[in-house]
Design goal:
alpha/beta; hydrolase activity, hydrolyzing N-glycosyl compounds; LOG; Rossmann fold; LOG_fam
Length: 313
């Protein structure tokens, strides 16, 4: 594989402290999938993110670029997002940033791209001489629902780096979608120094207490490094493709896109959630701890959709 820790002047990511978390054996990239994938990447945007996490983020962006995959992330200039964008830039990879306008626009109208990584600033100003493939998508709305929808739409897999409450929100929302069956794409946590041990333990406890009908490993997968996370995703999508071909359905792509009936169900759900938020004043919407209510709405609607789909099939 490609070692990029020295290139980033950062220490190599440390391994997980919990060896009981399921992990795929490392596999040579030559044996992996050869098509370009669209990988949604979650992670911190904090300027105080520790170097070991920044190193893993840089490695993720660099590896995705080297392997010809697209990196879709929140477009931030700092934290794990900033480092993965820099990695993509350094490997001349394809990167798509999805950022809410509140993070890039200033009231004075100057330096409107200050909130996003330089790879997008260069692209927007048409001054980048390195030919990197960067695209910036700016979303609107009272909350972040549209941004989250755009991040995962069309994704083949999700990689989750260490982060804070925003990353947790994104991770649990997609874990809910995976548990219910709305998506089947691989969701892989890069478990540096055991950062996501507690998440696995929560899922394990929920399974033991009969709150889940899927095993924890079917919902989330955990790897010790960014490179191993990409290896796992490539192998899983090869398996999905092989399974489809075995069923005589080889024309389907081995991607795990959101199931659709007319407009995307998740798109409709996000739209309804956003509409509900619009009726609340700005002061209320930002002062109330409403993430849990969003997830309850999402889970309830998705569960009903799952039941209807099964009944009709």
């Amino acid at each position: 594989g490609h070692s990029v820790a020295n290139k980033a002047n950062m220490p190599s990511p440390t391994s997980s402290r919990n060896d009981n978390i399921p992990s795929a054996d490392s596999q040579c990239k030559d044996d992996a999938i050869r098509t370009s994938l669209r990988i949604c990447c979650y992670g911190s945007s904090s300027k105080s993110t520790q170097k070991r996490y920044l190193a893993a983020a840089y490695s993720l962006g660099y590896e995705l670029g080297i392997r010809g995959h697209s990196c879709v992330n929140g477009g931030g200039a700092s934290g794990c997002m900033g480092s993965m964008n820099q990695g993509c830039l350094d490997s001349n990879g394809s990167v798509i940033g999805v950022i809410h306008k509140m993070f890039v626009f200033e009231e004075r109208g100057s330096n409107w791209l200050e909130g996003c990584h330089e790879v997008f600033q260069q692209n927007e100003r048409r001054s980048d001489k390195r030919g990197n493939k960067a695209k910036l998508i700016i979303t609107d709305g009272v909350g972040l629902q549209e941004r989250k929808r755009m991040l995962v739409e069309g994704a083949d897999a999700i990689v989750v780096l260490p982060g804070g409450t925003g990353t947790f929100d994104e991770l649990w929302e997609m874990a809910c979608a995976k548990q219910i069956g709305i998506v089947s794409m691989p969701i892989v946590c890069v478990n540096i120094d055991g950062y996501y041990d507690a998440f696995f333990q929560i899922l394990q406890r929920a399974k033991e207490d009969n709150f889940l009908y899927k095993d924890p490993g079917e919902i989330l997968h955990f790897e010790k490094s960014s490179e191993e996370a990409i290896d796992y995703i490539e192998k899983e999508l090869v398996k999905q493709k092989s399974g489809l071909e075995a069923e005589g359905d080889g024309e389907k792509e081995p991607t795990a896109k959101i199931k659709k009936r007319g407009p995307s169900f998740m798109s409709q759900l996000y739209t309804r959630m956003s509409s509900s938020l619009s009726s609340v004043s700005d002061e209320e919407s930002y002062s109330q701890p409403s993430t849990f209510s969003y997830l309850v709405t999402f889970a309830s609607g998705a569960f009903v959709y799952s039941l209807i789909s099964r009944r009709e099939s």
